[in-house]
Structure formats: structure tokens, C-alpha cells
Amino acid sequence: MLFPKKVKHRKHFTKRKNRAKEAVKHETRGVAVAFGSFGLKAMTYGRVTSNQIEAARKVMARYATKSGKVWIRIFPDMPFTQKPAEVKMGKGKGDPVGFVAEVRPGRIMFEIDGVENAVAAEALRKAGTKLPVKTKIVARL
């Protein structure tokens, strides 16, 4: 699983975002396929955990076999916290549990190259099912 080597602050502020407003804001960086021939593009806003990124990577690598190369274009660098089950309200924020990557619409999350078009499309489709955002398969222009 991906996580940063070192973080400046153990706990981040919870960003109180309205998902309807976030859906309007599009990503400005990482919006073009840069490394591979095909990419998986996010169409909605969401927070992707390191476990979800790893699950998508595994499914792509397994389907693409040894000939294909996979690039991960997102990195989970924001910690999130969770309180234990059946704990009363108050008494602090909770302990850090894992890391998430904030993904806005337009972001290329994964890229693949070195396989046929049909194989690449199927690998990206399977990876998209592992993620909490709606996705679209795009090709290099």
C-alpha cells in the first residue's frame, strides 16, 4: 500500500466540502495521458484510499500480464482519522487510520501501455470498478 514516508502533521483538518460544489471544480494538473497509451480518468469527486489504489493496480497488473506497464498518477498523502466503534461523542478527534488521495473530475489516475487496445480497455475497466469515483477510459491524443 502507498503512504508517505514522513508527514508534517499527523492529522489533517476534515475538509467540509459540498460534493455538488466539488463536482463543478475540475482538476487543472494531471489531465492528459502522459506516460502510457491509455488512461483512466476520474469523472466525479472522491477520496481514494491507499487500499483502493492498490486493489486497482493489482487488477490491472494481473490482466495486463508481463508485457504491459502500469503507471499510478495519484498518491495518497492526506491522513484520515477514525474513532473506535461504540465510543461516546467528544474526547478528541480519533487516531489516524490511513491515507487518501483527493481526486477531482478530469484527473488521470492510472495509465497503461505495452498491450493491445482491447486488453488495455478491459484492464482499465476492471480497475475502475475498484474505485469510489466514476471513471472513463481515455486514449493518448
Question: Can you characterise this structure?
Answer:
By secondary structure, this protein is an alpha+beta fold. The chain has a domain at 34-82 and 93-139: Alpha-Beta Complex (Aldehyde Oxidoreductase, domain 3). The protein is built from 3 helices and 7 strands, in the order H-E-E-H-E-E-E-E-H-E. The protein has helices spanning 19-24, 50-64, 117-129, and strands spanning 38-42, 46-49, 69-72, 78-82, 95-103, 108-113, 135-139. The protein has a 4-stranded antiparallel sheet, with helices on one face. Helix 2 runs antiparallel to helix 3. The longest helix is centred in the middle third of the chain and has 15 residues, at 50-64. It is elongated and about 55 Å long. The model has no long low-confidence stretch (mean pLDDT 93).
What are its keywords?
three-stranded antiparallel beta sheet, alpha+beta, 141 residues, 24% helix, single chain
CATH architectural designation of one domain: Alpha-Beta Complex
What low-confidence regions span 5 or more consecutive residues with pLDDT below 50? none
Name of the CATH class of one domain: Alpha Beta
Biggest sheet overview: 4 strands, antiparallel
Cα radius of gyration in angstroms: 17 Å
Overall helicity: 10-25%
Q: What is the tally of beta strands?
A: 7
CATH superfamily of one domain: Ribosomal protein L16/L10
Query: What multimeric state do the chains show?
Result: single chain
Order of helices and strands: HEEHEEEEHE
Beta-strand residue percentage: 25-35%
Instruction: Enumerate the strands of the largest sheet in spatial order, edge to edge or round the barrel.
Output: 3-6-1-7
